[in-house]
From TrEMBL:
Record-linked PANTHER family: PTHR33525, RIBONUCLEASE Y
Domain annotation HDOD: ranges: 12-209
Name of protein: HDOD domain-containing protein
UniProt cross-references to Pfam families, sorted A to Z: HDOD
Source species taxonomy: Bacteria, Pseudomonadati, Campylobacterota, Epsilonproteobacteria, Campylobacterales
Domain of life: Bacteria
InterPro entries, A to Z: HDOD, RNase_Y/CdgJ
Length: 280
């Protein structure tokens, strides 16, 4: 399947011009919401994803968020931009996740959760590191779209899903069936589109730390923990929390900071879920 995966990446279309406009806004630390709304309204898919996340249990309001302006106020500019970039990326890849038995909405939820966890976790430790890893955390699972397509093309979906259940290790199953980890495929997608090395390298070596350049090891370890914790099929499950915590200990990270972030997010999700039910 390796050749098929590489071919899928090579045939990806170029990202639309809108990505440059959004990236320029992000890199310039622009905080003009009116200007951002003007940019984002050009793509209804972006707007739809922003509204879905703002109305998910990751965020809680006493009313349904129905406007882009209100959604940006709810999410903040940084997360809004990450959702916009991911929307453009996934729309350009234009594949499904049937091989994983999850939807694109599930994907956006777990991706947003990953970025939010990085924000909550690393703001206690290093503000610059938090800002550097926020977007890679959101983007690191895009390789799953390509893997899913190739597995479907090879008529291996049923066997892949069975393996996912039996092994309870998505990364191991991806490697077994395709010869590549999702992290390596994601990195090659972004290399194909000439993304920054600061995005490509931490993602590329998330599951290959032995070969990771020294300057990116710490970042790759963090993304590895987040990847496990926010597993697209079972984000924040007790099993994944236990696995992620083992990695935190293995990498000699401060357990207290990790647990503080985890408790904060779980409490928020529980509270927002209850709020959502009471508003129905």
């Amino acid at each position: 399947m390796k050749k098929n995966l590489i071919q899928e990446i090579k045939t990806l279309e170029n990202l639309p011009n809108s990505i440059k406009e959004i990236n320029d806004f992000r890199k310039n630390d622009n905080s003009d919401i009116k200007e951002l709304v003007k940019i984002l309204k050009k793509d209804s898919f972006i707007v739809s994803n922003i509204l879905k996340i703002s109305n998910s249990n990751l965020y809680g309001t006493n009313f349904k968020v129905e406007t882009l302006n209100k959604a940006i106020e709810t999410l903040g500019i940084k997360l809004t931009l990450a959702i916009a970039i991911e929307s453009i990326v996934s729309k350009t890849i234009n594949r499904n996740l049937f091989a994983y038995a999850v939807t694109n909405d599930d994907f956006f939820y777990s991706s947003a959760l990953s970025a939010i966890f990085v924000d909550n976790w690393l703001k206690q430790i290093d503000e610059d590191l938090k800002n550097e890893l926020f977007l890679p955390a959101f983007l690191q699972e895009n390789g799953k779209f390509i893997i899913s397509q190739v597995i479907q093309d090879e008529r291996q979906t049923e066997f892949f899903l069975k393996s996912l259940v039996e092994k309870d290790n998505i990364s191991a199953c991806e490697l077994e069936f395709t010869g590549y980890s999702c992290s390596r495929i994601s990195a090659n997608i972004f290399k194909h589109w000439d993304f920054s090395h600061n995005i490509i390298f931490p993602i590329a070596f998330t599951e290959d730390l032995e070969n990771c350049p020294k300057e990116f090891i710490h970042k790759a370890q963090i993304l590895n923990v987040v990847k496990i914790l926010c597993d697209i099929r079972n984000p924040l499950s007790d099993n994944n929390i236990e696995k992620a915590l083992k990695k935190v200990l293995e990498y000699n990270f401060d357990v207290e900071y990790f647990l503080n972030a985890l408790d904060s997010i779980r409490e928020k999700i529980e509270k927002n879920s209850q709020l959502s039910l009471s508003n129905k």
